[in-house]
C-alpha cells in the first residue's frame, strides 16, 4: 500500500547566532529523515525536547519548508503551492487547549475557522458541518455559542479536535494532545481519538513525551534523537525489547522520579548534547552505555529487518545481497 504520508530524506537547517563575537552556526534540526505513515495507523514520534519532533511536524503541516528532501502524500510530492490541498488532508491538534483557542471567539467560530480560511461551503453549510463535528467529538450543540473560558480543559480539547476534524482530514498530527489535561480527563480524550480513528478511518502522527500514552494508543513508534530517527518498531515489540540503547534509556527513564521528561542527565551521566555542535559518528555516543570504538568515528547505517528499523553499530546493516530479504520500507 502507498503510505498516506511520507518523508523522503528530509532535512531542515536553521542559521542561528552563537552569541556576540562568535558568529553564526548551522543547526540541523531534522537530519535526513525518511518516515512513512501507513493509512489507518497511529505512529508515535518520541524523543527528548529539542530532538526535532516539532520541526518535523511543522514540515508535515506545510508550516515550514524542508531545506532538502520531499514530503509525499499518497506517493505524490507536495509543493509549497499545495497548501490548501494539504490543509484539507492534514490537520494539527495542538498541545494546550488553553492557549491554542482564541478566548474572544465562540466555539462555533473557532471550529468553523478552517472552513472559512479555505473558503469551504457557504455560511449555512458551514454551520451544519460545525454542528455535525460537535456531535462527533461528544460536545452538545448548545456549546456552539460558548467561549473557551466557560469550558473545562477536556471540553476545550474536544473543541480543538473538532477544529481539526471539521476539514474531514485523512491525517491528524496530534502534538502532546493530553499533556495539559488532568489525568482523569486524559483517558477520555485518548479514547475519543481512538473512537474517531475507527469511525472516520483517520491516520495519526502522535507526538508525545508520555510513553504510557504511546503504549496505549500507538501501533508503531519512531524514536528521534538529535534530528535523526534512530529506531522504528511496532509498539508492543519496542516496549518488550527495545534494541537501540537510546530507546532503552528512554524507557528506563519512565522509572525515574520525573517520568516522561526525557532521559535525565543523571541517568546517563552526560547531558543532552548541544544540537549546534552534535557529536561525531553516532550522535548518542557520549551518552551511550554500549558505546564501541567505531561509534565516535562513523555514523551507523540504517538497518531494516523483520523487527523494524534501527540505526546503531550494534545492529549492522544487512550484508550485500541480503537486501531482497528485507521487509518493506518503514
Ligand atoms: Fe551506542 Fe554506538 Fe549504537 Fe550509537 S552506534 S547507540 S554509540 S552502540
TrEMBL record:
GO molecular function: ATP binding; ATP hydrolysis activity
Membrane topology listed for this record: Peripheral membrane protein
InterPro entries (UniProt xref): AAA+_ATPase, ABC_transp_ATP-bind, ABC_transporter-like_ATP-bd, ABC_transporter-like_CS, Oligopep_ABC_C, P-loop_NTPase
Domain ABC transporter: 5-251
Domain of life: Bacteria
Intracellular or extracellular location(s): Cell inner membrane
NCBIfam families assigned: oligo_HPY
Protein name: Peptide/nickel transport system ATP-binding protein
Organism: Tistlia consotensis USBA 355
